[in-house]
Amino acid sequence: MKKKTIIIIAAVAVLLVAVGSVFGFQQWNEAKIQERKELAAKEWVTALKEQGFDKIAELVTAESLEKAGYTKESIVEKYKAIFGGIGVSNMEIDYEIDEEDTLEYIATFDTVLGTISDIHYKTKLVESGEEYKVSWTAELIFPSMLSDDKIRYTVDEASRGEIVDRNGTELALNTITYQAGVVPKDLGEGEARTTKLDNIAKQLGITVEFIEGQLGQGWVQDEHFVPLKTLPYGADTPKIEGVQYQQVGTRAYPLREAAAHLTGYVGEVNAEDIEKDPTLQAGDVIGRTGLELAFEKELRGQNGGEIYIETANGDRRATIQKIEKQDGKTIEVTIDANLQQTAFDALENAAGSTVVMEPKTGNLLALVSKPSYNPNQFVVGISQSQYDAYSNDEDKPFISRITTRYAPGSTFKPITAAIGLESGATTVDEVHQIAGLQWQKDDTWGNYRISRVSETASVNLRTALVKSDNIYFAQEALEMGEETFTEGLNKLTFGENYGLPLTMEPAQISNDETFGSEILLADTSYGQGQLLMSPIQMATTFSLLANEGVLTYPKLITDSETKTKEVFKKETIDTLKPMLVEVVTSTEGTAHDLNGVGDIAAKTGTAELKKAQGERGVENSLVTVFDANDSGYLAVSVVEDHRKVGKTATELIKPVIQYLELLTQ
């Protein structure tokens, strides 16, 4: 090849390499530029989503900020004031950058009024040194907004829904109460003022220091009413020198202690509540316990209102969000308010619970736990001394005994009898010859013996139910054997969750999957051992006695469906029912105190809680009563430590049955 040709080829090669290098550099440079644009957009979006307002000031161009009339400090304050004021949270943003460096994004976020969707924003990304920044205007806060505009909002508060009983009687309602306060000019001066404040503090159960703090607020003037204490619903307004009263809205519970564990109560939100739910605002009230908590969403409803842009002249420029309020729903429960009060009063000074149910429908007519507390005190802010009085009460009024699990005692014997009859292990005519008041199977039981109250030599099923013979049922369970007995128990609702709006552990047969001993099997037959059931679970289980062997699940909301399951044959219950009537009518019957109250069947029980064999423990008294005529009602009552009370559950439930008899006539 000629030298000249070689030189030309070399030159062309060098040129191609040079051109390629330039082209490659351009591509690399464009990619880097695009990366910087993407980074600027991502940082901007992230700062908005995370409300990193301090970062925002660094992401916008100085020129655009100056043109809008803002500084780095003032733009941060602007965002904080607006986003904080209307409760912006949970922001989601989709964005893109076009070929002309326009950043477009769509934002969706929550405010105090609810969710705002698809707010469109548009701005330019501008090269600033080696970075790209956002060209900022006030329209990046909200479209159509100008630099000197403000964001305003109004709230149309939704009314909280009420809780009513089956007849429409209010169990939880919105009403008024009274707020005690003072007008500074009426307090006088010097010693007279000191005397008045001392008396006011004493009468209202607050401190002089608290009163002085209220009076020392910046807005207070001589003729202003200064609130000191909101009184619970139904409280008196005593005449106190220097004190005036004004009406304020409140949540109220007319049955007070009688339904506190059912209704629960509301309270003002705190910082933690607002952090969990940014739609809440200071001063809002939410359900804290009971039905108020379980149905918080339905009861609270949805506030309405409007968020809008206001011009410097006070005119409305544009509406950002407008929501119509939705008042809370009324929750109608199956409870009968009059029966609830009657059942509460009937327990007198006892610690215990009474549950009344319709066996055919599952409707819970009364759910009583005693002792109790006044929920109205918690709505307005209970004082420390009042709270301490409840907390230090040895009978624990805050415990909901409606859902507390107890050993059902001898009230469970009809269930054991039904299992025995259907398995063939138990017959009506079979007679057990039993000597004495104590019995054990054999020496393998050691010192453990089963006791009974009545010494009867010949015991059949009828006698065992009427006189409540523990030994008879223990022997029947041992004859059935663990497998047969457990199979029968598993037809019930042990381990099941009823789906009620109440917190309740499932009923249990024993601590483990098996009994593990003959003693535990025997004890379980008469409702002790490790058997645990709440009064609601007892009522549910015993509904099959009043309902021809069909168990009806409990329900508390009137429009919920009735759910049932067939457990025993009608013939089995027809065999047992006359015997349970005799528990009342027979002079030997353990529920004879109820004879003459109505056409009823019953089963009593005593569950002894003792630490060791041979010692006498605390005894809980129980009773199950149902309408033997048309199964209109069933009631279960538990009285803790009845010897301390001096009355049994059977004695105390009498007014409840009398009321139910009138109700079903």
UniProtKB/TrEMBL annotation:
Q: Which residues form the Penicillin-binding protein transpeptidase domain?
A: 352-657
Similarity remark: Belongs to the transpeptidase family.
Q: What is its main location?
A: membrane
Location relative to the cell: Membrane
- Report the InterPro entries cross-referenced here: Beta-lactam/transpept, Beta-lactam/transpept-like, MecA_N, NTF2-like_dom_sf, PBP_dimer, PBP_dimer_sf, PCN-bd_Tpept
Where's the NTF2-like N-terminal transpeptidase domain? 40-148
One of the entry's Gene Ontology molecular-function terms is: peptidoglycan L,D-transpeptidase activity
What cellular component GO annotations does this protein have?
plasma membrane
Q: Does the keyword Membrane apply?
A: yes
Q: Please, which domain of life does this record's source organism belong to?
A: Bacteria
Signal sequence range: none
The protein here is known as Penicillin-binding protein
* Penicillin-binding protein dimerisation domain location: 157-319
Give the record's keywords alphabetically.
Answer: Membrane
Q: Which GO terms describe its biological process?
A: cell wall organization; response to antibiotic
